[in-house]
Amino acid sequence: MKKFIAYILFLLLHSCSEFKSEDEKVIHLADSYYGHYINTNPEYALIQGISSELIFQFNPNSLEDFKRNEFFEDSLYTELLAVDKTQIEDKVNTITYSILKEQLERTADLRICKTYLWNVSHRYGLHHRFLKLAEQQPLETHLQRNAALKRWATFPDYIQNELNNLKTGISEGYTMPKEVVRAVIVQINRILDYDLDDSPFVKPVLKTGDKIFIQDWKQLVEQKVLPALSLYRNFLSDTYYKEARTDISMLELPNGEECYNAYLRLNIGPNVSGAEIYELGQQLVSSNVSAIKALGSELYGTDQFPEIIQHLRNDSLNFFHSKNELMTCVDSVLLYSKEECTSYFANLPTKDILIDEYKPYENGAGEMDPATGNLQAYIRINTGYQLESTKTDCERLIFHEAYPGHHLQIGIEQAQIKMHPISKIISFESYTEGWAIYAEQLAEEMGLYSSEAATIERRSEIGRFMVIDAGIHLHGWTREQVVDYCAEIGLDRKVGLGMYYRSAVWPGQLVAYNYGGEEIKSLRKLAEEQLGDRFDIAEFHTKVLENGSVPLDILRDNIVEWIALDVNSQGD
Fold first, then answer.
1. d(CA 486, CA 410)
2. Using one digit for the tens of pLDDT, what is the confidence trace for 509-564?
3. CA distance readout (Å), 106 to 109, 420, 435, 551
4. What three-state secondary structure class fits 112?
5. DSSP characters for 237-257?
6. Is the dihedral of CA 258, 518, 404, 461 positive or negative?
7. For the chain, which residues score pLDDT lower than 70?
8. Strand, helix or coil at 253?
C-alpha cells in the first residue's frame, strides 16, 4: 500500500509539470483517470466494449482496493484544482475539466455512505453483473477463451472479498433492507436451479463450438462458479438476512441524511437537498393535477381527478390481451417512432435496436442495453409487467428507451469523436434520464401516442417519484404509503412496489428523471423565446446531445452560449 501511494504521488505531482498549457494538463489528467478506471474496472471495460485487451481478472473489490482508489482520486483532484480553468482554450477540454471535476467531487461525497459495505441489490447485484459478463465476454479467439477461464477461476476469491465487506458492514451498521435481501436470495435460487447445460453461465459459451473449451468451461462453472455463488446465497440467507435492517429509509444508516444528500449529488448535481426535492416534487404533482383536470373536462366531462384516472383504467381498449398483441405493438411503435424522428433530429443512430425479453431471475419494468463494440442494442421487455400495464405505458417505454429516448441519445453520443474518452465511462443520470423524460413529452408533440388520453397518463406521474424517493428516505414512508400514492394515479400494486424497492437499492435515482426533464424543457423554452422564428427543433436537439452526458450546469452553459451566438449574429 505504501509503495502504491508513493508511486501515485510521484506520478501525479510531477507529471503535470511536463505540460506547458492548461489544455495539455486537462488532457493528461483525464487520460490518467480513464486509464486507472479501465484498469480497475475490467468487467466494465469488457461489457461496454471499451477495451479489446485481454483481461484476466475481475474488478478489485477488497477494502484495501477501495482505499487505494480513493487515494488515487484525491491525488488527481488536487492536481485538477491546480489547473487554471480560465486559461483552457479548447471548449472540449473545458467540458472535460468540468466532467472530471464533478465526477471526483460527487464520488468523494458518496464515501460517507460506504456503499461497498452493503452492496446487495435485486436490480444491479453481483449476480446480474456476472451473468451479463458471461453473456457478453469476447470468446472469438483461443487467447480470449483462455483469458476467460483464468478470469473466472478467481470468482471464488471475488465472492470471499464480497462476504468480508458485508461482514464489515454488519459490524459498522451498514446493511441492505431485509426485503431486498429476500428478493436477491430468490433470484439466486432461480439461477442455481438450472441444470448445468442450461445454466446462464454456460449457455453463452456454447456458440463457440469449441468442444475442449466448452468442457473446460462447464467444469469451471460446476466446480468454482456455482459453489461460490451458493456460498454467497447461503451467507445471505443464513447470516445476513438476520442482521439486515428492517426499514428501507437511509436514515437507518450511519450519517443517513448526509448519505441521502450524497446520492442526490450523484444523480442530479450539487447544492440540492432532499427537502428541496420533496417540495419540488409536490409542486410538479400539483401543477400537473390541475392540467389533468382541465384535460379531463374535455375528454370525459369531469374535472374530478379520481374520476379521470378511473376513466383511464377502465378503458379495455388501452390494455393488451395476449403476449402476441404486446410484442406486435412493440414492433410497430419502434418502426414508426424511428421514422418520425427524421423530422426532429439531424442524425439518427447508425445501429438499430432489437427486442429482448427479461429472464426469469430479473426484475424491472423495461430498459435498454446500448450497443457496445460489436454487440447489438436491445430494448428489454418484461412481458409479465407490460401485459398488466396499459398500451400507453408500453408506448412510453419505447419512446423513453428507444426513439426519441435513450437509444437515439446514446447512439448520437457514441458517434461523437471530439469528446475525451472519459465521456464514455462517466454518466450523469439527470442528463440521461432527463432526456428520456423529455423524449416522452416530445413523442406527444410528434403525435406518436395512439390515444389522446396518453397526455393525462403521462402527466399524472410527473413529480410523483421525486416525492416517493424523498418521502421514503427523509420522511419514513412505508411500503403501503408508496403503493397508495401510486394507486392515486391508477398504478397497480406491482408498480408501487417496484418504485419502493428501486428507491431502496438506488436512492436518488428516481429523482433524476423529472429533475433533468424539467431542466431540458426550461432550456427549450428559453431558446424558443430568445430565437423566435429562428428556433429550429432539430438544431436545438443537436446542441443538447452534441457533448453526450454532461452535468446540467454544463448543458445550460452550452445552450445559453448557442442562443447568444445566434442573437449576436442577428445584431451584426
1. 30
2. 999 999 999 999 999 999 999 999 999 999 999 999 999 999 999 999 999 999 99
3. 5, 20, 21, 11
4. helix
5. IIIIHHHSBS--SGGGSTTHH
6. positive
7. 1-17, 51-53, 363, 373-374, 385, 387, 417, 571-572
8. coil
